[in-house]
Amino acid sequence: MPLTATLGKESRSSTAKAEKKSQLQILRAANFENLSSLVHGFSTRSGGFSAAYGGRQLNLGFTASDAHSAVERNRLAFLRSATGRSRAIPALVTLRQIHSGIVHILDRTRGIPERPLRGDGVITNRRGNLLGIQVADCVPVLVADRQGRAVGAFHAGWRGTAKRIVERGVGAMRAVFGCKPEELYAAIGPCIHACCYAVGDEVIDEFQSQFAYADDLFSEVYDRDPIKEKYPLLFLTARAPGHSNIGPQIHLDLVKANFNQLLEAGVPESNIWAAVECTSCRTDLLFSHRAESGYTGRMMALVGLLDKLT
Ligand SMILES: [Zn+2]
């Protein structure tokens, strides 16, 4: 098992197909397109009804700065566009995300929960339901079974990634729904990439203690600072090497971390797709909590099994 596998060129280069429908854009994973009875999509920020965050934004989270009614309208527009249905839209199941390793199982014996469940993953074999994960930098991961046995949706920020939410989720799909890992397909949606994700000692320590391949997830990046570049003499320091605050920052690659977890869980590398877009680099298209200093909306990663008639 190649623990340190880098993203295959194919996975990286298979750019998401953006769909434009009345300015609402949805990114789709290329490897999910031929799976029957499956609906999925990653929302972007453009084309919604929210006045907050720049106007005409597709904010799908009930944030403090946005009107509840606008978010409701946005969700309806997104679900319609993602499912291709104008009515009889399947019920949406969302989570109260808490950066945990908790995966909920939604089987056919249980009804749809009335309130969002606390946790960061949900798997189901029910048809006619949609699972939604909300993000604005964290990694949304969708998993689908080629035979239509089940689907899963996971929210993996650094804490959830350290708690192996995706590895646990795929394990649960195997144990509960009898999925075979070689028949699973995974899509890693837009999130903050290593280019923009500087992290501190707490994160580095947590990953080093959790993953044998942790070193491969970190890189040193000299963040550009135009002031320092223009006036370097002002920032000369007499401190010993390695103790200067001008030095490189450590960046974490959450995409690779979750890619590795999918491999660890047995999903073949060729079945994994990852969006090329970094949320922090692409605030024209995507919401980024970090790039927008916390004042931003939420996108949604959506997956569901539909019945044959749909
Ligand atoms: Zn970036």
Protein topology:
Layout: H1 9-13, E1 17-21, E2 24-28, E3 38-43, E4 46-50, H2 68-83, E5 91-96, E6 103-106, E7 117-118, E8 121-124, E9 129-135, E10 139-145, E11 151-156, H3 158-162, H4 165-177, E12 184-188, H5 201-210, E13 218-221, H6 226-230, E14 249-252, H7 254-264, E15 272-274, E16 299-305
Parallel strand pairs: 5-7, 5-9, 6-8, 12-15
Antiparallel strand pairs: 1-2, 2-3, 3-16, 8-11, 9-16, 10-11, 10-12, 13-14
The structure holds zinc ion.
Zinc ion binds next to loops.
Sum this structure up briefly:
The protein is α/β, with parallel strands linked by helices and 310 residues long.
The stretches of 5 or more residues where confidence is low (pLDDT under 50) are 1-21
CATH class of the largest domain: Alpha Beta
Across the major sheet, the strand order is 1-2-3-16-9-5-7
CATH topology of the largest domain: CNF1/YfiH-like putative cysteine hydrolases
Write down the secondary-structure element order.
HEEEEHEEEEEEEHHEHEHEHEE
Number of domains as seen in the coordinates: 2
Radius of gyration: 20 Å
Bound molecules: zinc ion
CATH architecture of the largest domain: 4-Layer Sandwich
**How many strand elements?**
16
Structural class by helix and strand composition: alpha/beta
Principal-axes geometry comes out as globular
Name the CATH superfamily classification of the largest domain: CNF1/YfiH-like putative cysteine hydrolases
Query: What percentage of the residues does DSSP assign to strands (E)?
Result: 25-35%
Give the number of helices: 7
Mean pLDDT: 89
Terminal residue distance:
38 Å
Helix content: 10-25%
